[in-house]
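Before relying on records like the one below, remember that each one covers exactly one chain. Contacts with other chains, cofactors or solvent are not represented anywhere in the record.
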Amino acid sequence: MKVLWFYLKRDFLMLLPVNTIIILLLFTGVILLKALQVRIGEPFGIQALTAAGALFFLFMFVLCLAIAVEAIWKEWRKRTQYDWYAMPGSIHVKLASKLVAVLGWQYIQMVLAFSLFLVMTLWTSSVENAAQIIKGLDVLPVFGWEYLWALLISPISGILIVFLLLFLLLGIPRGWKKVGIIVVYIGLVWVFYPYISIKFEANNTVPYDSNLIVLLAQTSLLQMLIDTLVAVFVYVSVSVFLTRKLEL
């Protein structure tokens, strides 16, 4: 447990700079939206708020991806990958630490982004429009197991997929091998693409406006099971690569 705690502190602190930049970007985004609203000269309507919400959602997706990338890439950028790999503790402890650190920072950023979106809504729109947007969130408590998928299973699966790609790209210095690995990775993406596209298809029969709520409404136990199996498969692939094929 002490070893895991050591790695957790190390990985959380390693991700602090990039997350500080992300926080500044989020605050800057809110200020720019307020400046745009002032320039327009009237409060944002429902359509403008919906567009801003979609931008926040897309922005957070990209930033969460950046956090996962930074967790691995920074080891090679700072040339600390040798120390990380040789330090005491199993590869599973080291992977678990990076996974928890990325997931923890992503949660912090998502809570901050959601809070700033509410602040932006109240700051840039009329009371009626803000109330309508906030009232639309009343549907969230009807979900249960869907949150397990949205907050744990799906993010872990996504983080591990990013980890696998980065370890393959950074851990194989030979050019011809790297090309072969990329081809295999693209092949796996092509195999899983039909399943991924089904998850993100808009369903016109779902009576919700928010894309996030649509995703929650479409989540099934079978999908959660498949995502879990994908996460396990990718985790095993990462651990096997790190223990047998990694070239530092």
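Residues 143-248 form one domain.
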